[in-house]
Hints:
With 316 residues, this protein is mainly alpha-helical. It folds into three domains: 2-98, Orthogonal Bundle (DNA polymerase, domain 1), CATH 1.10.150; 120-271, hpI Integrase, Chain A, CATH 1.10.443.10; 281-315, no CATH class. The chain is built from 13 helices and six strands. The strands form two sheets. The chain has a three-stranded antiparallel β-sheet. A three-stranded antiparallel β-sheet has the order 4-6-5, covered by helices on one side. A hairpin with a 2-residue loop joins strand 5 and strand 6 (309-315). Helix 4 packs antiparallel against helix 5 and helix 11 packs antiparallel against helix 12. The radius of gyration is 24 Å and the shape is elongated.
Amino acid sequence: MKNLAEVETRIEKRAAGATEKDNATVKGKIVEFAWKLMREGCSQKTIENYVKMIKWLHKRGANILDPESVKDTIALQRRWSNATKCLAVAAYQKFAEFNNISWKPPKYKMERKLPFIPLESEIDALIACCGKKTATILQLLKETGMRIGEAVRLRWVDVDLEQRIIRVNNPEKGGKPRAFKISINLAGMLNSLPRVNEMVFGKTCPKSAYINFRRQRKRAAVKLQNPRLLRITFHTLRHWKATMEYHKTRSLLHVMKVLGHRSVQNTLIYTQLLEVEDDEFHSATARSVDEARKLIESGFEYVCTYEDVMLFRKRK
């Protein structure tokens, strides 16, 4: 404990005693780091995350040119999860590589937890409580399983409202491009958005979208007296979509295609998620082809026909 206190004190003194010249040198190194990441062809999101992490390490007293100092700083971040520490190690690994710094990275094991999977009725209730743009984003994520970054970068040229097809041509995290057939409901919601520029959601970025969503989510949870809604995030809808697709098809390859994964290892987690019981269905009936078509478009699947009535079901 004495040694730990000494290390903490040393790091605090280093952070407090940093000169303007030191800070200018670090700033230059970080700008150079960002440029080299860009030249390597890293995604914008990766560049942002790595640069932010190097800045955090410097702000917390690490000498980013001294790998032992970086190790000490990462180890002392008690509020960081192992996932955050893994990101810090990955970011500094790249920084060290670019600056010819030799270091032996610490080993942190990322703890993977099973995500929260809400009921479809809870998702629909939340969407109904949100404003037009946020509701449209949520419905889009629910039907396609897109990442929020992919959704806000969607362009009108990627949306065919006549055929009700959306194409993801700018996938994140090295994912594959993909196309989705959307519902009449979502097509109508998209069509009602103002077309101020080439982007479907205008100047909305993931951060601003989440800030607006968080405020509306809190209001909806209070209004509906359902605290479970507070656990729903944009990424929750990606997990929900993948889980429902797996339970419907029992095909990992299908789920992998929907999510745009390049490795089936990233898709395997969806075999461990919520087991949907056979009796957890909404049921509906149709007496005409038009009624049956509308049910299918809203997500129902045909079961059988009994006394000239078609029976359909959809998982809750």
